[in-house]
UniProtKB/TrEMBL annotation:
Chain ranges of the Endonuclease/exonuclease/phosphatase domain: 125-348
Alphabetized InterPro entries for the sequence: Endo/exonu/phosph_ase_sf, Endo/exonuclease/phosphatase, GPI-anchor_lipid_remodeler
Record bears the keyword Zinc-finger: no
Molecular function terms, GO-annotated: endonuclease activity
Coiled coil: none
Residue spans crossing the bilayer: 6-27, 39-63, 69-91
Pfam name, any one: Exo_endo_phos
Top-level taxonomic group: Bacteria
Protein name: Endonuclease/exonuclease/phosphatase family protein
Keywords, in A-Z order: Endonuclease, Hydrolase, Membrane, Nuclease, Transmembrane, Transmembrane helix
């Protein structure tokens, strides 16, 4: 038994080093374009698993009281930025100062206003956002129908101003921004996609003009593809059939990572050429460890990291593991609130933050 324990202890050394190596690669995912290395991108996607293994290794070396403890500690500290992007503890309160105009913005992938149970959600969503006193609302996967068009939704939201960017070839689907403050100008951000889009609006708040950018980047389709693996027919299939399905999923994920990276660069060009206070929000379809998030974020701040509390996820599928919806903001703003309530009206939760101009 003693020999077995000794052998296991020796084995833990290379395991610690290998896991730390994967931690370094995962850290590099945020700085590496998927078009340059899709392998690094996939390792970045596994960040939660890698850090969990590092934590278990850390506990092991603490129990053993060995100096190898520094390896998992270094690996975890290297990715502390990622940990801060999914878990926060905010103790101090921050309130809107007297005389400041509140900018309470909601970003919501509304899933075409169809719930998983296939009932219409416009009334539920508009009532919630109106009661929450959101005064700027960005909808991704926006959809109109004969009963509720943009004007009707404006009245329901109590937001008299709106701008809609429809998808190519559609008069009902796209991205919509609704505002209590006047919209001075708006434009589409061309992503060269039939299913995903982005737009910007300039809004007058008091004496200051601000820009809001709303994005819905390339969809991963992972949930849809994963259902193929759960198909009872596949459960009884041979190894080759299973490999073919896994290969198909991997190839589509890889392609979508690359598309989002290009879209992120397009959005970032708009941010870099904007000379007024800016808020960027939307469904990035990528996690905080990704190149897409890091490239768009750049020097912007993440409202969750500023005012969030607890563990954060915004996508309701895949066991609540993914935060892929964000509100980022430039240095001219002060963030006073963040929350992402659990709502059953879409496969995403809304993300809500409040700001004022400094």
């Amino acid at each position: 038994m003693a020999a077995l324990r000794y052998f296991f202890s020796l084995l833990m050394v290379p395991i610690s080093l290998i896991t730390a190596g994967f931690s370094l690669i995962a850290y590099m995912a945020g700085q590496t374009n998927p078009n340059e290395s899709i392998f690094i991108t996939f390792i970045g996607l596994a960040m939660p698993v890698i850090l969990t293994i590092n934590l278990l290794i850390l506990i092991y070396w603490i129990i053993k009281k060995k100096w190898w403890i520094i390896i998992p500690i270094a690996a975890i500290l290297l990715n502390s930025g990622y940990l801060a992007s999914i878990f926060q503890v905010t103790i101090s309160s921050s309130k809107l100062p007297d005389g400041k105009i509140p900018i309470r913005i909601a970003s919501y992938n509304a899933g075409k206003f169809k719930s998983w149970e296939h009932f219409e959600t416009q009334y539920y969503i508009s009532e919630f956002l109106k009661n929450d006193k959101a005064n700027i609302i960005c909808f991704q996967e926006y959809r109109e129908n004969t009963k509720i068009n943009a004007d009707t939704l404006s009245r329901l939201l109590n937001c008299p101003h709106h701008a809609i960017a429809y998808l190519p070839g559609s008069t009902t689907l796209g991205t919509g921004i609704f505002s209590k403050y006047p919209i001075l100008q708006f434009g589409k951000i061309p992503l060269a996609s039939q299913t995903n889009d982005a737009m910007w609006v300039d809004i007058q708040t008091g004496e200051t003009r601000i820009r809001i950018i709303s994005c819905h980047l390339q969809t991963t389709n992972f949930s849809k593809k994963r259902r193929l693996l759960d198909d009872p027919v596949l459960q009884n299939a041979d190894i080759q059939q299973v490999e073919d399905v896994v290969t198909d999923i991997s190839q589509e994920l890889a392609q979508n990572f690359k598309i989002r990276a290009t879209q992120a660069q397009i959005v970032r060009q708009v941010i870099d050429t904007t000379r007024i206070p800016t808020i960027v929000c939307g469904d990035f379809n990528d996690t905080p460890s990704s190149y897409t998030y890091q490239y768009i974020k750049g020097d912007l701040k993440d409202s969750f990291k500023t005012r969030g509390n607890g563990y954060a996820y915004t996508f309701r599928g895949i066991h609540h593991l993914l935060r892929i919806d964000f509100i980022l903001y430039s240095k001219e703003f002060k963030c006073t609130d963040y929350y992402s309530p659990k709502k059953e009206w879409s496969d995403h939760n809304p993300v809500i933050s409040e700001f004022y101009l400094k």
